[in-house]
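Suppose a colleague, Dr. K., hands you the sequence of a protein chain of 563 amino acids and asks what its three-dimensional shape might be. Before reaching for any lab equipment, you can write down a predicted structure in C-alpha cell form. Begin with the sequence itself:
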Amino acid sequence: MSKTVSDILVSALEQVGVKQIFGLIGDSLNPLADSIRRSSIQWVGVRHEEGAALAAAGQAKLTGHLGVCCGTTGPGSTHLVAGLYEAARDHAPVLAISGDMPRKLRGIDHFQTTTPDLLFRDVSVYTETISAPEQAPKVIHQAIASAYAGRGVAHLTIPMDMMGSVARESVASMETLKPRAEHAPSEADIAAMVGELNQANNIVILCGNGCHGLGNELRQLSDKLKAPLVHTFKGKDILPFDEPCWMGGIGMIGTKPVYQAVMSCDLLLMIGTDYPYSEFLPSKAIVIQVDERPEVLGRRTATTLGVVGSAGLTLKALLQRVASKTDDRFFKKTAQARKDWDDMLNKQADLARSKDRIHPQAVARNVSDLAKPDAVFVIDTGLNTLWSGNWIRQRGNQRIIASFNNGAVGTALAQANGIQALDPTRQVIALVGDGGFNMLMGEFMTAVQHKLPVKVIIYNNSSFGLITLEAESIGLPAFYEGIQFPNPDFAALARACGAQGFSAKKPGELKTAISDALAVDGPAIVDAVVAMNELPNMPHLDFGLLERVTVAKVKEAVHAIMG
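The predicted structure, expressed as C-alpha cells, is then:
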C-alpha cells in the first residue's frame, strides 16, 4: 500500500513516542488529520493555535521528549508563533507543522498568503518547506533531529498538495532520533574545579534545570563541602522544600538568606544553570559555571572557570575527587537564617492573618499543602508568579513548570492541558492571574472537551498586579485605567463550560473551595478573590527601590484626590 507524505510523517512521530498532536483542523491539514485518525496518536483539538503550541511546549518541558503542534494555512500557522517561544526560550524540543497553500498558488499574493519559513525563522532551530515527496523522509528526519539536538523548535511547512502526495520511502535511521546524550567534562577541568573547591572555605552551590534527577548527588556534595544548596526558579522542584541542605531560591523568587549567602561566599558553583539576573550573583567571589552549552559560560558574572559538561557526570566526578570539609559554620548560619525566613513566610500565608481578605500567599500555600505528592504545578506569569513561586512548598515527586525564560502572561492553562494529556490520572494544577486566564480562557473548553481534569486556581484581583509594581518601582504612579479590568464570575464560567466552579471571597472559604476543586473528577476552576495591593518580599533591601515606590504611592494618592 502506497503511503503519503502525511502517512510517513505520522509514522515517524509514532516511532519516536509522540502520544498527542495539538492543533486546529483546516483545509491544508485534512490529509494529516486522516493519517492521524489511522494511527495510535491522539488528536487534541484546541480552541486557539497558540494553545496548541503551548500544550506541546508544556509536554516537552516536563519530559524532555518531542511535543508536536500544527496549524493550517496562513493565520492558522501564524497563531502558533507566540506559543512556540515557550519551547524556544525554555530549550524544549517541539515540532511545529504548518499547512500551506498548493504550490501552484505561490508568488501571486493569493488568499491567506504567508512565507512560513521566514515567519518561523526567529523561533526555530530549523525550518524547511517540503516541496517534493522524495525530499520528505530526509527533511522529516532532519527536523526531529534538530529539535532534539538544539533543544528547541523545528518547523516544517507542508503545502496542501504535498500532504497527500505519495512518498516512495519512509523515514530512515529512526534509532538516531532521541534526546541529546550526557557528556563528561575534560579531566583538566575536573582537576581545576577540585583544586578551587578544596581551597575555598564558604561554598554555595547554585542548582539549575540541568540538575533535575540529581537530588542524591547534590545532597552528597553539599554534605561533603558543607555547602548550602540554592536554586533557580526552574530548579525549585529538584528536591523537596524541607530538605535541610535545600536553602531556597535566588532572586525575586527567592529568599534573603540565599542572597546573603551568595554575596558572602568565597566560591559559587553554578551547575546546570545560566541564571540571567546578574544583580543577584556575586562580583568578587570565585565563580565556577558548569553547563552543556559552551556559549553560556561566563556571560552573567565574572567567571573564574567555565566547564563544558553535563551536570550528572560532573557531580559524580567531583564526589569521587573533592576533599571533605569539617567546618560547617557557614552552612549552619545559612540554615538558621533560612528557618527564620520560612517562619515569616508561614505567618504571611496564615489564613487567620485577616478576617475579611484573602492574601495571595494563602492561596499558594493552601494549594501546595492540599496537592497530591506527585502533582504538577503550572504557574503563569505576573505577580502571581511570585506568590506561587515563593509560597509553594514542593514535596514528593511534584514538578513545577512555568514560563521560565519567556516570561509570557497567559501560558499556564494551555501548558497544563498538554501535560494533563500525557497522564489524565496525574494531578495537574494551573495557578494563574485573572489577567493571564482572560487571555486564553478558551483553552478551558479544550480541557472540558477532551476530559482533561486540569484544576485552575485564579488569583482574582481585577488587575495586572505586576504592572502596578513595575510602574511604582521606577517612581511612576500606576496607570490604573489601563491596569484594572472587570472580571466575569469565574466559577459560573466553569459551570457554563460544563465543568465545576468554586468561589472563595473570605479566608474561611478558601481551603474548602480548593479542597473541593481538587477532589472532582474533571476540570475545575477556583475563583479566589485576593487582596489587590499586596507587596512581595524583597530578598535584599534596595533603598532606591523603596524611595521610588514611596514616591509613586504619593503620586497615586494625589491623583486620587485631584481626579
